[in-house]
Amino acid sequence: MTISDRAYQMWACQYVEGQVRILKRQVRGARLARNIEYVHQARVASRRLRTALQMFEDCFAKDKCDKWRREIRRLTKRLGAARDTDVQIEFLKKFITDLPAKSKKLKPGLRRLMLRLRQRRQSIQPKVVKVLDRLDKKQVLDEIIAEINEITVRCGKQHSKIQSQFVFQKTQEHISDRLTKLFSFEHSLNDPGDGKGHHQMRIAAKHLRYTLEICNLPFEKKLDDHIKGIKQIQSLLGELHDCDVWLDDIKQFSVDEKTRMVEYLGSIRAFKRLKRGIDHFVRQIRKERKRTYEQSVQYWKQFAGQDFWNKLDAILKEHNTTVAKIGIVKEKTDAVKNP
User: Fold this and answer.
1) pLDDT: is 333 or 140 the higher one?
2) What CATH number has the domain spanning 1-162?
3) Where are the domains of the chain?
4) Which listed residue, of 158, 193, 230, 254, carries a Cα 20 to 30 Å from 202's Cα?
5) Euclidean distance between CA atoms 230 and 225, whole angstroms
6) Helix, strand, or coil (residue 198)
7) How far apart are CA 210 and CA 277, in angstroms?
8) Nearest to 128 by CA among 65, 15, 34
9) Which residues contact 19 (CB under 8 A, 6 or more apart)?
């Protein structure tokens, strides 16, 4: 089914086009990998674009939209692996720099971990370039822009507004779906050890945030405070997940290093030189995880105290009522003009 409401189509076109153009600006830098910020911005733009294409799939031809989403998902995955490793490298670099001067015996293990992270990042970059080449070859971004131009022409300049009763009805549906998903993982915050649940809640918060950002256009920025609030809980849950990833990665790092030592040295005795720094790092990550978990729980509880969700509901209902009244007045005016 293709949505016929022109305001809704224009809303879809404005947002999707904006994210495509942002992504096009960042991919060249992501290809060169000289500055980690390009990978980060390209990844965020690809995520927002995927969310928008899912929201507005009825505005585009199904076969085309399915292809775009498939290719953008592949890009997000590659950029995600690169970005996550970049973040770990920067985190570990600062951790090593901040060590006291008397902590020299901790550095061999941490430097070995840094070496493996850098090697992993180097192995990821060709995959990033490959998926960018594929994106160019299939002309995905240019195809999206071309489709948007066609829709814009069909809608006509007189239909450039992105507000309608249908638009606000759909915003309620989109936001409600994302809220339901987020609250389905709320129980995970009762268990500090539910890493999987925390991760799923983070993803749900991210999707809600992106949906609110998209809906902020017709709401004329009235959702800013709620976007900031959701961004904060997403960030806290993201830091919590980062700690879990670190603990898993370090465990695997230790296994891999011991295997290498057996292969090349015949024993794991040399691992003792690395173990002190690795153990220290693990202790600090566990402390950080505990602190971040407590912050996440506290921040989530604040939402209820600030009437956060009721205020969001009030904004949505207020706009729906306003647009409905405007529609009724227009119908009566048209009836007078055309009895």
Assistant:
1) 140
2) 1.40.20.10
3) 1-162, 164-333
4) 254
5) 9
6) helix
7) 39
8) 34
9) 45, 48, 49, 52
